[in-house]
Write a structure and sequence with these properties.
The complex is a heterodimer of chains A (about 110) and B (about 110). Chain A is globular and about 40 Å long. Chain A has strands spanning about 5, 10-15, 20-25, 30-40, 45-50, 55-60, 60-65, 70-75, 85-95, 100, 105-110. Chain A is mainly β and about 110 residues long. In chain A, about 0% of the residues lie in helices and about 55% in strands. In chain A, the strands form two sheets. In chain A, strands 2, 4, 5, 9, 10 and 11 form a six-stranded mixed beta sheet that branches. Chain A has one domain: Immunoglobulins (Immunoglobulin-like). Chain B is mainly β and about 110 residues long. In chain B, about 0% of the residues lie in helices and about 45% in strands. Chain B has no helices and ten strands. Chain B has strands spanning about 5, 10-15, 20-25, 30-35, 45-50, 65-70, 75-80, 90-95, 105, 110. In chain B, strands 2, 4, 5, 8, 9 and 10 form a six-stranded mixed beta sheet that branches. The radius of gyration of chain B is 13 Å and the shape is globular. Chain B starts with a strand and ends with a strand. The interface between A and B is medium-sized, with 23 and 25 residues.
């Protein structure tokens, strides 16, 4: 079955540094992958979508890469700020035109 | 415009009771999803509505779970005879048809004692 892995341990990063989060998947070839941010007590908020034919996508301080050979996506936040502290979820195209398969998320903590 | 809203925000109930959770999607979003999120886990798909098409109920964990949607607006998720393992955050999301991005509500935190 499809499996998504995100680092379950919290990631602690010093303010101003680049934070890199990893999303690995197995037994699947998704057409696209999405990253969402989730703050405590809130629902996930969409950040970026990258398709299988795209290697990299950027949005302001965010960058996502998608390596279909390694079956891995990396999510980077440059010049990180304490306000970037949240849990980041990756979600893969579930094969239908609407289903997403979700990772458990990685908690990011940016220390001032 | 207004985002997805859910009510109640928190619900504490006793084992065996029925609960009803409500979701108001973004106006114009014909697609609506319900998810369950247990602590420290990813989102678990429950059910999907798209317009007047038959809903995809493949994610509902048991026949104690059911959901309805009135046209392209409000949806309710009902859990009958609640069990302690039903304790979780129930999230609703909506989207335009055939669009990958989903917009989430704040969730309902359900605690079954």
């Amino acid at each position: 079955s499809q499996k998504i892995e995100q680092n379950s341990e919290a990631l602690n990063i010093q303010e101003g540094k680049t934070a890199t989060l990893t999303c690995n998947y197995t037994n699947y070839s998704p057409a696209y992958l999405q990253w969402y941010r989730q703050d405590p007590g809130r629902g996930p908020v969409f950040l970026l979508l990258i398709r299988e034919n795209e290697k990299e996508k950027r949005k302001e301080r965010l960058k996502v890469t998608f390596d279909t050979t390694l079956k891995q996506s990396l999510f980077h936040i440059t010049a990180s700020q304490p306000a970037d502290s949240a849990t980041y979820l990756c979600a893969l195209d579930g094969g239908s035109n609407y289903q997403l398969i979700w990772g458990a998320g990685t908690k990011l903590i940016i220390k001032p | 415009g207004a985002g997805v809203s859910q009510s109640p925000s928190n619900k504490v109930t006793e084992k065996g009771k029925d609960v009803e959770l409500r979701c108001d999607p973004i106006s114009g979003h014909t697609a609506l999803y319900w998810y369950r999120q247990r602590l420290g886990q990813g989102l678990e798909f429950l059910i999907y509505f798209q317009g007047n098409s038959a809903p995809d109920k493949s994610g509902l964990p048991s026949d104690r779970f059911s959901a309805e949607r009135t046209g392209e607006s409000v949806s309710t998720l009902t859990i009958q005879r609640t069990q302690q393992e039903d304790s979780a955050v129930y999230l609703c999301a909506s989207s335009f048809p055939d669009k990958e991005t989903q917009y989430f509500g704040p969730g309902t935190r359900l605690l079954v004692l």
